[in-house]
């Protein structure tokens, strides 16, 4: 897919000037990052607008945008340098993406328009639920990519939150998962 080739070339080039992905993973960018994001993209329902939190190096947001160029993909990234990369990548890839160089805590209006929410390697599940719950409808599905500590994160989050969840095993990393979460409400008491 040509758009993904453009993305990987830009990621590799910009990585020399700023930290977009872990340097140790750059040699395996297609498997470790692109394939990992594609596995999330395949799980997404149809949507008009998605919101990716902490977009950083564009994962999974720019991979989603490359696969669904007719859909709006909002990216929330507080680092101005990383936001500049995201905007340049959207333009070069020819995708519909809006970059919001703001902190997630101030992104309520952006989140309120989301039909789907994504995040990768951003925060604990408990913190992610606290970030999104006040701003999205109970029906809005959230897809969070998680690593080896996902079981502990789920246990911690269930102490504070009620939600439905489907755990999708990663097709790329043996101890990683994609958590599909909806129906988020804070526990009382």
TrEMBL record:
Its main location: cytoplasm. One of its GO terms (molecular function) is rRNA (guanine-N7-)-methyltransferase activity. Pfam families: GidB (PF02527). It is found in: Cytoplasm. Its EC number is 2.1.1.170. Keywords: Cytoplasm, Methyltransferase, rRNA processing, S-adenosyl-L-methionine, Transferase. It is an enzyme of class 2 (transferase). GO terms for cellular component: cytosol. It catalyses: guanosine(527) in 16S rRNA + S-adenosyl-L-methionine = N(7)-methylguanosine(527) in 16S rRNA + S-adenosyl-L-homocysteine. S-adenosyl-L-methionine binds at residues 54, 59, 77-79, 104-105, 120. The keyword S-adenosyl-L-methionine applies. Belongs to the methyltransferase superfamily. RNA methyltransferase RsmG family. Specifically methylates the N7 position of guanine in position 527 of 16S rRNA. HAMAP family: 16SrRNA_methyltr_G. NCBIfam families: rsmG_gidB (TIGR00138). This is Ribosomal RNA small subunit methyltransferase G. It comes from Jiella avicenniae. The lineage of its organism: Bacteria, Pseudomonadati, Pseudomonadota, Alphaproteobacteria, Hyphomicrobiales.
């Amino acid at each position: 897919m040509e758009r993904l080739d453009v993305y990987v070339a830009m990621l590799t080039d910009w990585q020399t000037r700023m930290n977009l992905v872990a340097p140790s993973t750059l040699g395996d960018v297609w498997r470790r990052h692109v394939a990992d994001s594609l596995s999330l993209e395949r799980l997404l329902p149809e949507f008009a607008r998605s919101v990716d939190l902490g977009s950083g190096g564009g994962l999974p947001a720019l991979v989603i945008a490359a696969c669904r160029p007719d859909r709006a993909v909002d990216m929330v990234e507080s680092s101005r340098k990383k936001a500049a990369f995201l905007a340049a990548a959207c333009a070069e890839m020819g995708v519909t993406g809006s970059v919001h160089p703001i902190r997630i805590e101030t992104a309520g209006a952006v989140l309120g328009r989301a039909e789907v929410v994504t995040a990768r390697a951003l925060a604990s599940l408990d913190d992610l639920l606290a970030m999104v719950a006040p701003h999205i409808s109970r029906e809005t599905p959230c897809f969070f990519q998680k690593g080896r500590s996902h079981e502990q994160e789920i246990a911690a989050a269930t102490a504070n939150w009620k939600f439905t969840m489907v755990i999708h095993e990663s097709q790329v990393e043996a101890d990683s998962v994609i958590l599909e979460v909806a129906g988020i409400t804070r526990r009382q008491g």
